[in-house]
Amino acid sequence: MTQAPSKNQALMERRHKVVPRGVSQVHPIAVARAQGGKVWDVDGKEYLDWFGGIGVQNVGHNHPKVVAAVERQLQLYMHTCFPAVAYEPYVELAERLCATAPIPGDKKAFFLNTGVEATENAIKIARAYTNRPGVIAFRGSFHGRTLLGMTLTGKANPYRQNFGPFAPEVYHAPYPDEYRGIDTRKALDGLQEVFETQIQPERVAAIIIEPQLGEGGFVPAPKPFLKALRSLTQKHGIVFIDDEVQTGIGRTGKFWAIEHAGVEPDLICFAKSIGGGLPIGGVLGRAEIMDAPSLGGLGSTFGGNPLACAAALAVLEVFEQENLLEKAQKLGEMLHQGFRRIQARFPQVVGDVRGLGPMIAMELVKDPASKSPNPQLTHRLLEVARERGLLLFKAGMHANVIRCLVPLVVSEEEVEKGLEILEASLEQALSAE
């Protein structure tokens, strides 16, 4: 007798019939509900969620304060379009976020829907302010999937494919990755080479950087590199854009990851976790730079939607009332200890453990000497961990990095359980080789 497909299998069959193959999905399951740091699939199985909607759920799934704020706003009005009719939640959110920014002087902010809209608009603002065309991004970076976003992104596979031609006047410099032999000096020399061979610094409007790579493998930029980069941008009148779409809103134990380096950017791009699950992104920065575009040059129909603004204000309250930054720092300590313990047990395959606070990752290799990437083991580990009730996500230029984006509200017991599953799953994945 043929066994009927599970609800997950049935839904995946429906999905593949109507959703294009280019829309990727790491885990072949469908969620039925979620709370805090856990999700349950349509077959009723419980999972610890260690990817958090790819960095969206810093305050956890369905935080009651976020849900209540959205419900209250829902009873008032859902949409007006801010460029047409203003509303207080938008203005209050801009005030609150500007107050968090490690940027001196007067600051301004405006809202969009996604991270890539934030990066694109930051480039627009920088070009308007400097009247220059050039933009420098970094190898291994990820800045989104639109035309300019793909152009800025320093990772060809799978993002660029045959989608070109790409936007002009974008150049890429080496990102410092000490595990792969690129230290601060080599990265700065590479940037200087870009200035000498591709575009003069006086033609560069902006340099955009993630203080810790996201899709590129969770590689933190060294403090000396970020400080030197800030000095270079100031010397040449270049706008320093800090892309905090994935690293921001407490993900690294600081509200903004750039704070770890003590660097003051000109503009900050944000999205993901600020909305607690609702889509919202934006740009904030020095008022003088933000005001460069003339009237009508910035805007969005749905950007800063009232429901998303209400959710974001609730997210900020949760951080304050529940001391989430302090909890994030403790969470980071636990995760680093756990990941180091796993590395010590499996030194032949765990080549590197790195990250700022709880934004942590381990890079899997075939051997510690060659550091040859091991995407096959990474894929098996994800599958085994899922079977054991832990949802992981991968990253890196060779898809061989396990990245952790666990919600910051999880308990110590949940963290220890996740680490135990991760360790046992790696042991099982290795035994299958």
The proportion of residues in beta strands is 15-25%
DSSP helix count? 13
Poorly predicted tracts of residues? none
Instruction: Give the SSE order as H and E letters.
Output: HEEEHHHEHEHEHEHEEEHHHEEHEEEH
Q: Percent of residues in helical segments?
A: 25-40%
Number of strands: 15
Calculate the mean pLDDT score and round it.
97
How is this structure best described in words?
- With 433 residues, the chain is α/β, with parallel strands linked by helices.
- The chain contains 13 helices and 15 strands.
- The strands form 3 sheets. The chain has a 7-stranded mixed sheet with strand order 4-10-9-8-7-5-6, with helices on both faces.
- The longest helix is centred in the last third of the chain and has 22 residues.
- The chain is globular, with a radius of gyration of 22 Å.
Name the descriptors.
alpha/beta, 13 helices, 7-stranded mixed β-sheet, 38% helix, 433 residues
Give a concise summary.
This protein has 433 residues and is α/β, with parallel strands linked by helices. It has 13 helices and 15 strands.
Helix/strand layout:
Blueprint: H1 7-18, E1 31-35, E2 38-41, E3 46-49, H2 52-55, H3 64-74, H4 88-100, E4 107-112, H5 115-130, E5 134-138, H6 147-152, E6 170-173, H7 184-197, E7 204-209, H8 223-236, E8 239-243, E9 267-270, E10 281-286, H9 287-290, H10 306-321, H11 324-345, E11 350-356, E12 359-364, H12 375-387, E13 390-391, E14 393-395, E15 401-404, H13 412-431
Parallel strand pairs: 3-13, 5-6, 5-7, 7-8, 8-9
Antiparallel strand pairs: 1-2, 2-3, 4-10, 9-10, 11-12, 12-15, 14-15
